[in-house]
Amino acid sequence: MMAAFNPEYWEVSLDASRLDRFASHAALWFETETDRERRYAMQDFYRAVSPVVRGLIDTKLTGRQREILRLYFIDGKTQEDIADQLSVSQSTVSRHLFGTVRSGKKVGGAIPKLRKAIDGAPPPEIARALGDLRRRLASAS
């Protein structure tokens, strides 16, 4: 007898004895040592650069850019939701996040400002964390 498919939960009931036939390394949730080391390396990288990026956000962006950046990336709101909340157009939200093109050159925007601040002369903490990340990822391979 075949198990019934429940589309509401996307589940297929299965006898536990059948699950025992699968090797654990073939499971979807299986994580190799390499995967684990990469995950730890990324966590350490984010932990090291987060305070620096927060500082750049506080010093390089306007108040409106900081607000929109927080709503978009931290709170996970859509541009449309942010526009409704702040009583501005969606295109205004997009410009605050990503900038706009004027005379063939991209100007403004929170993301380009942060990228420029980091790419121009990366803070030593970011450069050090990036070097550590590269070494760890290379050794994990």
Task: Detail the topology: elements first, then pairings.
Layout: E1 5-6, E2 11-12, H1 16-19, H2 33-60, H3 63-74, H4 79-86, H5 90-98, E3 100-102, E4 105-107, H6 110-120, H7 124-140
Antiparallel strand pairs: 1-2, 3-4
Helix pairs in contact: 2-6, 2-7, 4-5
Structure report:
- The chain has 141 residues and is mainly alpha-helical.
- It has one domain (34-140).
- The chain has helices spanning 16-19, 33-60, 63-74, 79-86, 90-98, 110-120, 124-140, and strands at 5-6, 11-12, 100-102, 105-107.
Number of strands: 4
Helix content: 55-70%
Task: Report the principal-axis shape.
Answer: flat
Q: Major sheet: size, sense and barrel closure? A: 2 strands, antiparallel
Query: In sequence order, what are the helices and strands, one letter per element?
Result: EEHHHHHEEHH
Strand order of the largest sheet: 1-2
Question: Cα distance, first to last residue?
Answer: 44 Å
Estimate the strand proportion: 5-15%
Query: What Rg, in angstroms, do the CA atoms define?
Result: 23 Å
User: What number is the mean pLDDT?
Assistant: 87
The total tally of domains equals 1
Low-confidence stretches: none
Task: Briefly characterize the structure.
The protein has one domain.
Record keyword descriptors for this entry.
141 residues; two-stranded antiparallel sheet
